[in-house]
């Protein structure tokens, strides 16, 4: 066995390392605290937060901020990520609540049965999966990506497990909303070209972290969380 490949496999078996062979389906909810249709989708995302086979992430977009309430967790990277899916998936326009499942398909975020069916379908379509691992290293994290075919981008995500916010204005004014797996940061670690990669990184903003390997067409090829 190639020594580099052996070393990577050994690292992937270390305790406390997130493994790609157990890799979750990535569930991305594009949402806003200013959107009155979003709380049911937020609730659904929260129900998936305790499952090992799903990585739910709440991306708070910025375009609702001009409509009465500035989302306290919105950031431009979330808006840009949704816009990229718009062209990849042919959704026509950005909307909330939008659920993107494994980078392959889109659904209205509150449609429980549709989202569940898309997760099952994504779980069955993993012929191009690549081993990915994420572990803590000192005050940072170590990202490892195995060998495979094709090209992809390595993304490091930081998120908070749950945040509760009183909403002062806008469509949800007067409500207190609890949101799960709120994305606080999204950082590209550069390209993956099919060869094994190992690199140390500063810990992302947020209580928890995940790494995603995403193909140019949007498909998720690998994912792991701490």
UniProtKB/TrEMBL annotation:
Keyword DNA-binding in annotation: no
Signal peptide annotation: 1-20
Record keyword Calcium present: no
InterPro entries hit by this protein: DUF1223 (IPR010634), Thioredoxin-like_sf (IPR036249)
Sorted UniProt keywords: Signal
Protein name: DUF1223 domain-containing protein
Organism listed in the record: Methylorubrum rhodinum
Lineage of the species this protein comes from: Bacteria, Pseudomonadati, Pseudomonadota, Alphaproteobacteria, Hyphomicrobiales
